[in-house]
Structures are given as structure tokens and as C-alpha cells.
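Fold it.
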Amino acid sequence: MAVGPGDGTDAGPAARRGTGLVPSRAIEDVALAVNVVLLFAWGLHAARAGGRAWGSSSKIGTADALLGPAVVVANALVK
């Protein structure tokens, strides 16, 4: 049995871009969300390790988390 174009076994780049795969925009959204959560966690942890109370630590963590989207916006404005 011959295998080749048209029989469904030879999916070229155009076919791979179609249905069934996660769009790159979705991957970017997930990566940004994970990085924002990590920035918050690292800021919170560093503030707690520095002896700050939970309230001020969460404010510092939030400020750190906002750096992620700020960098994305600044990058978009520069381009």
C-alpha cells in the first residue's frame, strides 16, 4: 500500500497548524499567568523571609506580580 499525499498520513506544516493543536496565543497566556503567579509567590516569600507581616508581604507580592504584565505592555509599546 502506497503512503503519500491525500491519504491522511502525510500531514505537512499547513495541516499541523489546523485543528487539534493548541494555538500559540493560548500557550502565551498560560506562560504569562504562570509567571505572574511565580512573581507573586517569590515576592511574598522574600518579604516574609525579610521579617515583614503577612499584610505587607502580600502587598509586596502583588507589586512584584504586576511587574510581569508591565513588562509585556512595555515590550508591546516598544515594538
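The chain has three helices and no strands.
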